[in-house]
Design goal:
Blueprint: H1 3-14, E1 19-23, E2 27-28, H2 68-71, H3 74-82, E3 83-88, E4 95-100, H4 103-112, E5 117-120, E6 125-130, E7 136-140, E8 143-146, E9 152-153, E10 163-164, H5 167-172, H6 203-218, H7 224-239, H8 247-259, H9 264-278
Parallel strand pairs: 6-10
Antiparallel strand pairs: 1-2, 1-3, 3-9, 4-6, 4-8, 5-6, 7-8
Length: 280
């Protein structure tokens, strides 16, 4: 039996982190016979928690537990014998994991997200924030968000202090609401800031952010409208309250979107919807 995996799981559970075993391939154990096809009446497709009397770890993230008696029980022990890793439910621990799958994604995070606790992965990094949110896959190239109703592989304690979950991460998972009916508007929609000194580190920080936002729109190969909206949302969540965005910055973003086929009206609507979503 992989005693070290069970010991790791018990230590995490003692810290109120819900855990579960992963089998080879970093995937959860499947439903047992009594739970196949949701016959147990709980957790359909592992998307919503529900009642289940099954003692085994057969419901993916929903099976994660902090109960030491369950983790060390006979059924779970047999699972640990075949397990290859320990996973945990970030949302159940009040955490959000930004899973950065490659070097490009890590570089993007360093430019656009607040520093927080990081854990190296095989190809990239996990950035862990204090706070929970909805999980979302593929929010941009090489970036997944794992929090509620999801699991993440436990890779050890990270480096650095854990920062509060920022709006810039929450914005990545927000889908654009339907555009409100309004009269046609002009292309540029400058943002009136709240005044005061810009809190960002250097003027170059804003310029890099705008450059990367334009690049993200330009490189979109599908779901262009959604990409434009999420990019506008990310820019506004970072720079929308200090008044440092100018007409020139907005024009660059709109021009990139139009070059991908977006109309001026769609650009204006996406910008307005992003502002509304952030309460600006």
């Amino acid at each position: 039996m992989n005693d070290h995996l069970m010991r790791t799981a018990l230590a995490l559970a003692a810290s109120r982190v819900p855990v579960l075993p992963l089998r080879v391939g970093k995937v959860p154990f499947g439903n047992c016979r009594r739970c196949t096809g949701n016959a147990c009446g709980g957790r359909p497709n592992m998307k919503t928690p529900g009642p289940c009397s099954c003692p085994g770890p057969c419901h993916g993230w929903a099976a994660a537990t902090t109960d030491a008696d369950v983790i060390a029980s006979g059924v779970w022990r047999r699972a640990w014998m075949r397990a290859s890793a320990v996973a945990y439910h970030p949302g159940g621990a009040g955490l959000t994991v930004v899973d950065l799958d490659d070097a490009d994604a890590v570089n993007w995070a360093r430019e656009n997200l607040p520093a927080t606790q990081t854990v190296p992965t095989t190809r990239g990094e996990h950035w862990i924030y204090l706070g929970r949110m909805q999980s979302a896959n593929g929010v941009r190239a090489g970036v997944d968000i794992k929090s509620t109703m999801a699991y993440a592989r436990w890779l050890g304690n990270g480096a650095g202090a854990m920062a509060p979950l920022p709006d810039a991460v929450r914005a990545l998972a927000v889908k654009e609401p339907p555009a409100a009916r309004r009269a046609p508007q002009s292309l540029t929609v400058p943002l009136k800031g709240h005044g005061g000194e810009c809190p960002h580190r250097t003027p170059a920080y804003l310029e890099r952010g705008i450059t990367m936002a334009v690049q993200r729109i330009t490189e979109a190969s599908s779901a262009v409208h959604a990409t434009v909206y999420r990019t506008f949302l990310a820019v506004l969540s970072t720079h929308g309250r200090c008044g440092c965005l100018t007409d020139t910055h907005v024009t660059l973003l709109f021009a990139a979107a139009q070059a991908k086929g977006e109309s001026p009206r769609h650009c204006t609507d996406a910008w307005a919807n992003a502002r509304t979503a952030l309460g600006l």
